[in-house]
Amino acid sequence: MINKILVANRGEIALRVIRAAQEMGIATVAVHSTADVDAMHVRMADEAVCIGPAAGTDSYLRIPAIIAAAEITGADAIHPGYGFLSENAEFVQALEDHAITFIGPTAEHIRIMGDKISAKETMKELGVPCVPGSDGGVPDLETALKIGEDFGYPVIIKATAGGGGRGMKVANSAEEMPNAFGAARSEGKAAFGNDEVYIEKYLTTPRHIEIQVFGDGKGNAVHLGERDCSLQRRHQKVFEEAPGPCISAEERAAIGKTCADAVARINYIGAGTIEFLYEKGEFFFIEMNTRLQVEHPVTEAIFGVDLVREQIRVAEGRDLSFTQDDLVINGHAIEVRINAETFPGFAPRPGKVTAYHAPGGLGVRMDSALYDGYSIPPYYDSLIGKLIVHAPDRKAALARLNRALNELIVDGVETTIPLFHALLKEQDVHSGDYTIHWLEKWLDREYGGV
To answer: Are 248 and 255 a contacting pair, CB within 8 Å?
Structure first.
């Protein structure tokens, strides 16, 4: 049994884990940088340890400091949240070496899925449908041009170690390939220390559909339906919902079973998300995230489960608390990501929050670490909150989202709340008729491109 959990993260996700642990009667430890000494997760935890200066590389990404904090406080488990070290195989291996339980998958599974090429090869072997593309890394421009000729343009060049939209470039023709190929390699090298890239056929009208899976590490796994995350800007999700408005019950059952069977075969443990591009009734694997997703609350809402609690339980060696037959969809849920950014410019705007009021009422959840007087630091991601609504159907969920946005108050800093007020006036959003390219085209049309 786990007695004390150190949460190796900050902000709303750190709070999310602390709350789940406290409800289970498990003590918690917060770690923080000098910039986060007054953060809400520090106040909420049973203990707190400063692990370094403001910059993430000097604090939240310092593996020795986090392990030392666990040993000093007697924490026997670590939950990574998302981002930072959540998909770092070296970190997981170090915890194993120090006899500290990692609340997540094994280092091996993180390694396999962290490299886009090995992930794709593994999924092919497990029967998961993949986007047509290169067999492994593409060593040079000459090979890239040959692949473009074979598959036909457009194609997308992706860094093998990429994520968050970085290291991804589209080539619409052979003439565009040299610049796109070089830029993808350069971005991959700068962001991830790895300039290897691979190439896939670029789908022109896809939706972004992801399947939530959960395994017990003993060869058993379930899926918890899909989330539609098609409203994106520069490959960054802003609006997520479950279930997907374009997915039929038959499609959900088929692709869900494929994904659950795949992770069961490799004895995957904990939460994972298998992401697809969906076009014309077909699913194409793009990547697997071996962690809790930012948008996990919409899945929790429609299934009535606590995914963090379940992560902790299976990390203790216990069986899943539900079977596939227990997982029945109830209603519709939507999440919008609130960032401290200008709109429509999307420039980060850290600063002091002079007033904060979270919306409430039936079916409304606000995951945030804000409070009146809190100073948002400039060193980290600009996400400051997630507004989640749940209702009997999609139409009601959109109405509830509109009402909740009108209640939400964040004064003192600029935020992306106006983006969602504007989106809720669009017929395509109400009908669910959009692809992953819709938002950028809409921004270009309405605001001149941002």
So the answer is: no
CA–CA dist 323, 222 (Å, integer): 7
Q: Which domains does the chain have, with CATH numbers?
A: 4-101 (3.40.50.20), 132-201 (3.30.1490.20), 207-447 (3.30.470.20)
Residue 65, pLDDT score: 98
Give residues with Cβ within 8 angstroms of 9, minimum separation 6: 17, 41, 60, 79, 80, 81, 82, 83, 84, 86
pLDDT of residue 237: 97
Q: Provide the percentage of residues in the chain whose pLDDT is more than 70.
A: 99
Give, to the nearest 10 degrees, the angle between helix 307-315 and helix 11-23.
Answer: 70
Judged by DSSP in three states, 315 sits in helix
DSSP state of 354: S
Q: 143, 167, 172: which is closest to 157 by C-alpha?
A: 167
Residues in CB range of 259: below 8 A, 6 or more apart: 128, 211, 213, 223, 274
Q: What does the alpha-carbon distance between residue 287 and residue 264 come to, in Å, rounded to a whole number?
A: 17
- Give the global pTM: 0.91
CA distances from 171 to 164, 276, 283 (A): 19, 20, 22
| 161 SS3 class | strand
Distance separating alpha carbons of residues 161 and 402, to the nearest angstrom: 38
Say what the alpha-carbon torsion angle 371, 377, 379, 380 is, to the nearest 10 degrees.
Answer: 10
Q: Is the pLDDT of residue 167 over 90?
A: no
pLDDT in tens, 120-152: 899 999 999 998 888 889 999 999 999 999 989
DSSP state at residue 169: E
With H, G, I as helix, E, B as strand and everything else as coil, classify residue 417. Answer: helix
The separation between CA 3 and the C-alpha centre of its own chain, rounded to angstroms, equals: 27
Provide the annotated active-site residues: 291
pLDDT > 90: what percent of the chain?
A: 91
Secondary structure of residue 43 in the 3-state scheme: helix
The pLDDT value recorded for residue 449 is 63
pLDDT tens-place string over residues 55-113: 999 999 999 999 999 999 999 999 999 999 999 999 999 999 999 999 999 999 999 99
